[in-house]
Amino acid sequence: MSKERCRIGVVAPASRMSPEVAEKVPALARSLYLDRMPEIVFHPQCFASHGHFAGDDETRGQAFLDIANDESYDAVWFARGGYGSCRMVEAVMRRLTEPSRRKTYLGYSDAGVLLAALYRAGFEAVAHGPVAQDILRDGGNAAVGRALAWMVDRSPEALEPTVNRVKMTAAFNMTVLSQILGTPLQPDLGGHVLMLEEVGEAMYRIDRSLFHITSNAEIRRVSGVMLGRCSNITPNEPDFGMNEEEITRYWCQRSGIPWLGRADIGHDTSNKIVPFGTSRELCRSHA
Hints:
Helices cover 30% and strands 16% of the residues. The protein is an alpha/beta fold. The strands form two sheets. A six-stranded mixed sheet has the order 2-1-3-4-5-10, sandwiched between helices. The chain has a four-stranded parallel sheet with strand order 6-7-8-9.
């Protein structure tokens, strides 16, 4: 039987989380859930600092394991993106225990590295969606509310609108997916609708990422590609001559991958949730 109160552990496998997030997120949860407010636990590692990272590689990896392997937690929620998950993911995957398979994992951006590894390993409740740090952005309450609605209630309103119309889905930041292709982290996405988004890249970099992604033999087994939002695109000098949709259509045509249109995901607070695999209801059972 599912627990009455959802327990969510927040970890930062990449960059450090802003301290005010730990005040704002529970306050929002209280206003949304009243007597059935989820318990949200911010691992102390979220506030650690080690150069670019939220603690060194071992510290970040151990924090993830502390939550993932603890039977009392229902979900592992990523604090933010940034960079760093690739430095600890393989060591973490070797040390996961059976309770880790019964949890929900939610995040995007650099967290896509861990989502890919978990999905490859057969974890069923993995999803691309808002991180805790999003609460500090314009419209952040809506993004965090959406994340909580998915983790606590599996609310269908939190999903990207096309998810329930197709058999299987997955979503990634373009750069992150491009970097893990050909590595031991690459998941099997055959038959999936693959949704892609990007932020802070020039058009030529988007073009290069899509060349690499659509050239991968395994990626060519997807049922199609959808393009989310590409935001904060940096200037191209001279102008590239194509926008992000035209570039994506071009590489889909060259690779023989069906182009399926636009997706409601992106590096923004309108980012909708995309489960990996199917969006079926997943039970949380605890001994």
